[in-house]
Write a structure and sequence with these properties.
single chain, about 80 residues, mainly alpha, 5 helices, about 55% helix, globular
Length: about 80
């Protein structure tokens, strides 16, 4: 996800766009905001890439089975049960 969007969006806009709400209190993110994205924020970018990888793994791994009961019953998206 990071590679795709980093080619299409400026880093100053990309980081706030992809930053999960629960990580917005990180000191590195607060420094990023204080500097309006100026400078390098390698640690913040690492933390964000790590989190996005985790989110993708959870969504398409564990959560692909947990909580997706409509498809387990053979229903189609948009069908009325």
């Amino acid at each position: 996800m990071w590679a795709f969007w980093s080619e299409r969006m400026d880093r100053r806009k990309l980081i706030p766009t992809l930053m999960p709400a629960d990580l917005r209190e990180l000191p590195g993110y607060q420094r990023f905001l204080e500097k309006s994205g100026a400078g390098t924020h390698k640690r913040l970018e690492e933390d964000l890439r790590h989190r996005l990888s985790w989110e993708a793994a959870i969504e398409y791994g564990l959560n692909a089975r947990v909580g997706r009961t409509l498809f387990d019953r053979g229903d189609r998206p948009g069908s009325i049960v």
